[in-house]
């Protein structure tokens, strides 16, 4: 009878202190990765203004112990106010070896190839996928890349189209 009571009591305890510390250290590591980002990359992440201000402040700190304490603060802000999974996906998009970066790269390549092959119909579909894209600029890039492909020249138009597509995809995701 006491065994059943002990089992019910164990379920109500929640995560252990060690588990909470491991999660906190993981959040601090994510915070360290964010410190190395440029302002443009930082602005593209789905983070609150509080966390963004903490990261900018942390960049100014040079003393080891003060920096360590500030990383604890960043971890606390992330634990209380942020979605760590979304932030990690955003960070992975900047890491050239990650699966997310590779996925976005291949997606942009497929859109580019379709636009070169199909023209305005593929451009229209991409605008549905990414409404913030500049349709006139995109059509111009696609037309130039298609012209290069037809003439079997390489003036870099396909690369320009790819870069623009990649920027749009990064904004959407």
UniProtKB/TrEMBL annotation:
Main location: cytoplasm
A single GO cellular-component term on record: cytosol
Keyword Ribonucleoprotein: no
Compartmental location: Cytoplasm
GO annotation, biological process: assembly of large subunit precursor of preribosome
UniProt KW keywords: Cytoplasm, Ribosome biogenesis, RNA-binding, rRNA-binding
Matches recorded under Pfam families: DarP
Acidic residues bias (residue ranges): 1-11
CDD domains for the chain: YjgA-like
Region (Disordered): 1-23
MF annotations from Gene Ontology: ribosome binding; rRNA binding
Family: Belongs to the DarP family.
The protein's role, per its UniProt record: Member of a network of 50S ribosomal subunit biogenesis factors which assembles along the 30S-50S interface, preventing incorrect 23S rRNA structures from forming. Promotes peptidyl transferase center (PTC) maturation.
Protein name as it appears in the record: Dual-action ribosomal maturation protein DarP
């Amino acid at each position: 009878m006491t065994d059943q009571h002990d089992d019910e009591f164990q379920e109500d305890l929640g995560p252990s202190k060690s588990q909470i510390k491991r999660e906190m250290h993981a959040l601090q590591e994510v915070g360290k990765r964010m410190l190395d980002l440029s302002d443009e990359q930082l602005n593209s992440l789905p983070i609150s203004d509080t966390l963004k201000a903490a990261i900018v402040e942390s960049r100014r700190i040079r003393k080891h112990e003060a920096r360590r304490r500030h990383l604890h603060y960043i971890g606390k802000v992330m634990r209380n106010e942020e979605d760590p999974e979304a932030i990690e996906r955003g960070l992975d998009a900047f890491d050239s070896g990650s699966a997310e970066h590779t996925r976005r790269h291949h997606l942009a390549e497929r859109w580019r190839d379709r636009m070169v092959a199909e023209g305005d119909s593929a451009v229209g579909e991409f605008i549905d996928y990414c409404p913030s894209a500049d349709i006139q600029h995109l059509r111009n890039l696609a037309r130039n890349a298609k012209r290069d492909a037809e003439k079997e020249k390489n003036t870099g138009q396909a690369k320009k189209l790819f870069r623009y597509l990649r920027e749009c995809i990064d904004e959407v995701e």
